[in-house]
Amino acid sequence: MKRRSLLHLSAALLISGGMTPAFAESHAMAAHPETGEKLAEEQVFRYRLLDQFPTLDPQLNEETAGFHVIRQLFEGLMSQDAQGNLIPGVATGFEASEGNTVYTFTLRDDAKWSNGDPVTAQDFVYGWQRAVNPETGSPYGWYLELTEMVNAAAILAGEMEPSELGVEAVDDTTLKITLNKPLPYFPAMTTYATLFPAHQATVEAHGSEWTSPENMVNNGAYNLAEIALNEFFRLEKNPEYWDAENVIIDEVVGLVINDVNQALTRYEAGEFDMLEPLPAGSFPRLKEERPDEAHSVPRLCSYYYALNQSDNGPEALKDPRVRKALSYAVDRDVIVDRVLQGGQLPAYNFAHAATAGFEMPEIDYASWDQAKRDSEAKRLMEEAGVEDLELKLIYNTSESHKQIATVISQMWKQKLGVETSLENYEWSTYIDIRGNQNFDVARSAWCGDYNEASTFLDLLTTTHGANDGKYSNPEVDALMRASKTSENPNAEYTQVEQILAEDMAIIPIYHYANTFLLNPSLKGFPMENVENNWYVKDFYRVAEE
Amino acid sequence: MLSFIIKRLAVAVPTILALIVFSFLLMEAAPGSPFATERGVPPEVLANLEAKYGLDRPLIERMGIYIWNVVTQFDFGPSFKFKDRTVNDLIAQGFPVTLTYGFWSFVVAVVVGGTLGILAAVYHNTWLDYLAVGISVGAQVLPNFVMAPILVVVFTLWLGWLPGGGWRGGQWEYVILPVIALSTSYMASIARITRSSMLETLNAQFIRTARAKGLPMRRVIFRHALKPAMLPVISYLGPAFVGMITGSVLIDVFFSTGGIGQFFVNSALSRDYSVIMGITILIGSLTVLFNLVVDVAYAWIDPKIRY
């Protein structure tokens, strides 16, 4: 294996060349401080990215691939442990007052930026004001609107100054946030990139180039060492990080590999440690071939078909009986067990079953067997008096969306005599068509922005931007409003889910699972964090036997 | 000749301008927006974004400003998708990569393909001919999206000799597989064209005369046959060279080279308007340039051609 030894050599040279002696120390013979496992000499984590992330600017980021990297480079007020529970980040804790509308965070005094400056409350204020400042043009500025922070919406609309945002640095280590209305899950929202701090002097000195390796000043466990778009990036351990002594992995390498089969070959050749996602339908085979490496864990996303109930939509879909018939006729077990085969769960409700604190509601048709659903579907269709229904089903380009659409259209045709025309569009066009209600049925999916059921259920309120089927029920709107101040919002959530099932606002299809391959010598991966938010600072590599 | 070159350059300018205008209009007509997301961007955020990137101005004004910036400052604007980069940054990163593996692919394709073609013609209907034809047909029917995965399975997974992708500033072990994958089918075409053109030339009267004069075979081929036989090859090489140095999306995708081809396709998919335009202009200008080079080469090789 000449090539691998070459690679190792160059990696070793880079490490010894680029790092301070303090942590260039060898991990040989070292043991993990808690578990006592023998650590490997080379503490590098390599993983594959499907696509190049567009930016590493926390306030401009809008997607998962970038967030995975930003999470290593920066640290927010709160952080997550391996189960996805909230743990202290830059803040040591917080206090909620005035009925969950005012939050006061206390910051640790030893948190530092990578240039040695202390991380202060003012850095958070600056970062957040930057996110809502119209001049920044952040595509994720609305995240602050979502937090209900005072004046966020007006600032985004250009009606107020960014300085009027409801966040204040009381002193260097005290940050006070004021919200428009109670939001019990606000602290959980601070784990997302948009609410990370920013180093004002750096951003102002370098403008949009402040995220390049030579300019970036960050406060997370790792620093950006190099990046080549569409090829790879490399991170090195940040010696200024407040908890650096407990960080074991020295280096993180991300390889951009678009083609998933190519990625699988290279994983098999040992080029990297984690491959996610896997080629469609390959999970059962890989699980058999590599039982220690193939994993399937719940992922906080729901797959559903939106039904167009707007004025543009077909008359038939405005009838709940037709919507129910279409939903009942979908045999989810076939989709989950025969098509996807990756540990996904059949869905009869919207919020993912593994959402934190969420009690799965009792949904009538979930408890029926498929034969009963089918006969009920036929009965409802007859009752509605709809004949020769023709539907246009749109989906974005993907092998599995196509397979699912094909299977479902067959089910509808056989059971209900509904003709479905499948229309495939590439992403941007699909988004455009879906957003303008030029469809009858649209393949859709939603991933939680935070680990709480409202991230799903809010989507089906009348004014939500992603409610593309334009479902609207004042009762649902009122219940979701009430849930924000409720002691135990599960009561409201259960009611909402039951109304959604009764109205069949959407057709829930399955709850996601994440399937991936992970090198068994890499430990500390958060298998139970349903948001799949992993922090490399918690990983370590054990010596191979 | 000089006046010909000047004339051609004068035509090139309106050609590229027309290219800009048509691309701009086509892009405008495509549904979707660079800022569209599944969630539906709130109108005030969308307005901020459009103002930041100047999309709130009328089409004609935008096109005018764009052309002005390109012509006067060589400024292709910021990327809509890669928010901390300009189009010039992306081209500066991607183009050298593509140029490197494209150039080497060109060299390999011409040297190997040309040699195979000449050998096949000179040793017409011998085993050497059959072998050369066999290789070039084989290479032709193996498109690079089939070649690339096979190469990675063999050289990365089985043999462990070469990395399965990446670029790392163009270290040689990262360059080999992309070059093989990209050059193969070009090599096959060059071999076929060279062979048939060479065969035709070798049967021409003037070659017969040369041989009748008793000139050695080697001299006949290199002195007399090669130049005229190269004419059809050269007309193929011009566009082929542009095709290679502006990259193959497949090579970029399969080998994660970070080359320009992938930026081009991704920018079209994500409606990254400024990147689409920048790369279109780059490829368009190179095409115009190399067509000119081919025409000049023609005139140089074949004295019959006069412009």
Structurally, how many domains make up the residues of chain A?
3
The chain-level structural class of chain A is: alpha+beta
CATH architecture of the largest domain in chain A: Roll
Count helical runs of chain B: 13
Tell me, rounded to a whole number, the average pLDDT of chain A.
91
Percentage of residues assigned to helices of chain A: 25-40%
Strand residue content of chain B? under 5%
Largest sheet of chain B: none
Fraction in beta strands of chain A: 15-25%
Mean pLDDT of chain B: 89
Radius of gyration of chain A: 25 Å
Which ranges of chain B are low-confidence, i.e. pLDDT below 50, for 5 or more consecutive residues? none
How many helices of chain A? The count is 18
What would your notes on this structure say?
- The complex is a heterodimer of chains A (545) and B (307).
- With 545 residues, chain A is an alpha+beta fold.
- Chain A has 3 domains: 1-50 and 221-273 and 519-545, Periplasmic binding protein-like II (D-Maltodextrin-Binding Protein, domain 2), CATH 3.40.190.10; 55-62 and 74-207, Dipeptide-binding Protein, domain 1; 297-514, Dipeptide-binding Protein, domain 3.
- Chain A contains 18 helices and 19 strands.
- In chain A, the strands form 5 sheets. In chain A, strands 11, 12, 13, 14, 15, 16 and 17 form a 7-stranded mixed sheet that branches. A 4-stranded mixed sheet of chain A has the order 1-10-9-8, covered by helices on one side.
- In chain A, α10 (320-328) packs antiparallel against α13.
- Chain B has 307 residues and is an all-alpha fold.
- Chain B is built from 13 helices and no strands.
- The chains are: A alpha+beta (545), B mainly alpha (307).
- Chains A and B meet through α1, α8 and α15 of A and α2, α4, α6, α11 and α12 of B.
